[in-house]
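How a chain folds remains the central question behind the approach discussed here. This step matters because it turns folding into a mapping between discrete strings. The sequence in question and its structure tokens are set out directly beneath this paragraph.
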Amino acid sequence: MNHTVAVMRKHWLPLLGLNAALVGATVFAATVLVGRTFTPTWTAEAKLNIPSSGGNLSADLGPLGNLNDSGLSFSKEVNPLQIQAAIIGSDKVIERVLEEDSERYLYPKERLNAYKNLFEVEPQPQSTTLTVTAQGSQPELALERANNIIDSYQQRLQELRQQDASTRENTKELETARQDLIEAQTQLAQFRQSTGIVDSDVQAQELINSLSELKTRRSLVKAQADASQTKARVTSSNLGISSQTAVDSLRLAGNTEYQQVRESLSQLEVELSNARGQFKEGSPQIKALLQRRAELRQQLQQTINTAVPNAGRGNIDYTLGTNGSDNRLNMIAELLAAETAAKQLQQESTEINSQIANRTQELNNISQNKARLAELQRKYEIAEGVYKGIIAQTNRAKIDNFNSYPNVQLIDGPALDPEPTDPNYKLIALGGLLASAFGSLGLLMFLESRDPLLSLKDLQLVKYPVLVSISQHQTNLLENIEYSWTLDSVAELEFQKLASAFSFLNLENRRVAISSAAPGEGKTTVTIGLALALVKLGFKVLVVDGDIHRATLSERLQISQQKAIESEDGQSNLATSSLATIVPGLDALAAPAIARDSICKYFVQGDFERQVDALQKTGNYDYVLVDSAPVNAASEMATISSVIRNFLFVVQPGRSGRYSVMSSLEQLRQYNAQIAGLVVNGIESRPTNYYYYGIKQPLLEAQT
């Protein structure tokens, strides 16, 4: 809301011009144009009655309603008054009226619809009467048109009665309706047979229930499969072998030849051990046993390679089948059983997924064909209703052709309204208001798209830190301190924050220029507030009015401008008497009173730099604050940036232009200026409890 008000305040002059023009145009349209173009219109009105008819015929037309000849049947589908109203407004009736109209030259055939708008037929609710109104530019013309349309309507009814009577012997329409009904019935039956859809809602619900059961079963099977796989992994980890290795181990344990060779090798090892106790190592007995052991080992390896071809690839347990290995055999059996169960459950889950996919496809087919089935069903019902209606219409015509087109009774009129219609001034005023609202919105969007206002979110795109944000209320307080030169306790808090952050900056020559993109964004106010806050911290400060064009700082501090005296070498010497002490520790140097065409010369020739250097040396100032001109409003910023390398840049969201701020920052960067930080001025005040999160959060994000 605040942003909208700021945009309106920024573009108030174009808005005022647009709305003034729209108000003038509305007043002109309501007075001059209406008086010139509006023609008074008279209205004649007549009331007709549609009498009830007798008979005993009735027919059910399906979706088209019910047809009863025991009186008029009023329903949403079939309303005799609507039929009569359609007859009155038909082209044939209106054309006959137009042929006898005295102003027929104004309405050629291509403008028949415009001529129809002069007539209105309105059925009265809960009755059998019709109200017919006719308009005319003269009272006599309105009455003439009302009489003519009633006469033409009566003639048209007589023609329709005659055509209705001719249908008694005309069976072509009935045959066409019968063929349409047969065709619709055949199409519906073929579609149901090809798609297998009889009742789409019931079949869809059955498929949905089946899908729900299958998904539940799949979840259970998947959980069981995961449990079996987990059990297999745990057993495999405990055994230290994989399932394939376990199978190979079992296969080896069940090989009789392997067990026999292994048993023989064990016995030979015992014999060799006993022989080594009786004979020397090189004795024939020992050599024979060693030879026999080598042969058994080779035979054992051949048996392993034959029984388990891939024995060398895994950690096969060669001890299975011996005493003490029954427990490992049981564990291997559990491992294989768990893996087999997991595979079976996974296969079952795959089959369930296939069933789910099939059920889903069937459900999608039902959804896709449901509209077509409904369309064919509706077509069949309509064809059946039309067929029944034609039969009923034929029978009704045989009984009494006046049932469809009764003799209409004129109840009242035509009567003329003595007062002509007046222009609708409320509609003109509403049009003016809508034009003002949408025109103002469009103008604001157009102007804002060309030069949008700076927002807090835009500061997140800037790489420079935000030192402090100052509320609008605190800025207003600061603008009224020239009488006491002390900060209000509320304003002092934010400027003390700024001064604290400022004191930690590494500034070249302890000088800083405070600038902004355009005038009126609060740079002078920030300069004064920062200077007073630095003095409060114990620093000695010199403020210099560097905005020679406007000299706002000199005016705010109520010090007279310096008068420049040009020396023989062409340099400008300024009197030091213009240096004023505002408060102890704070001195101010007013802007020199020089001509506008000499301002740039003043900076280029170095007069400004020499004066600041001299005052800073003699005054022993801790900081020199220069209230410089706005970047986009002065041509000497390049020279100032060469003297004052450090800049504080002041922005005011809701007042500063986005492009102007970005252009100014880019311009300072090109001047090789060091932008120490940003000061956000004029923030809307919020309650204390919500200020930090409501307003400062975007600023902290921008600073980050």
Remarks:
- Residues 687-704 have pLDDT under 50 and may be disordered.
- The radius of gyration is 52 Å.
